Amino acid sequence: MSNHARRFGALAAALAVTACGSPPPAALTPEQVMALTPGDARLAGLYETSCKACHAMPGNLAPQVHDRAAWDPRWKQGEAVLLDHTIQGFNAMPAGGQCASCTPDDFKALIRFMAGREDSAK
Ligand code: HEC
Question: Average pLDDT of 32-55?
Fold first, then answer.
């Protein structure tokens, strides 16, 4: 195989991987993590004053916002379990996530946002 062909092969392989969406997304910088916020203004306010304190604080136990590697195994439990753990508390996760004014629907939307699934059907 010529050098040229080998390089093309590597490029084609890289493109194929990208097309499948399988490579892990590049890790976000702490600044990018801090800047993430729900699109809806009211939800953004709830997020900023509650979940964000722990879920956008790299280094603590909370799965970080949009960190799919941390959220995917949790997401597999199903939304009902995640909602229950949010309302009841779960280990170091405080009951209600320190959001006294959040409704169950708010929690669901906040969980979807943090888990990187804001596009999921309701
Ligand atoms: C005081 C810090 C803190 C705040 C505030 C907080 N969390 Fe958490 N959260 C945690 C920690 C720590 C965990 C990981 C618990 C574990 O897996 O042991 C967690 C885990 C979770 C999980 C995953 C539960 C599971 O079953 O794996 C969900 C969902 C969640 N939080 C939602 C929220 C939402 C929604 C808010 C805001 C309304 C919020 N959290 C606010 C600390 C916090």
Answer: 96
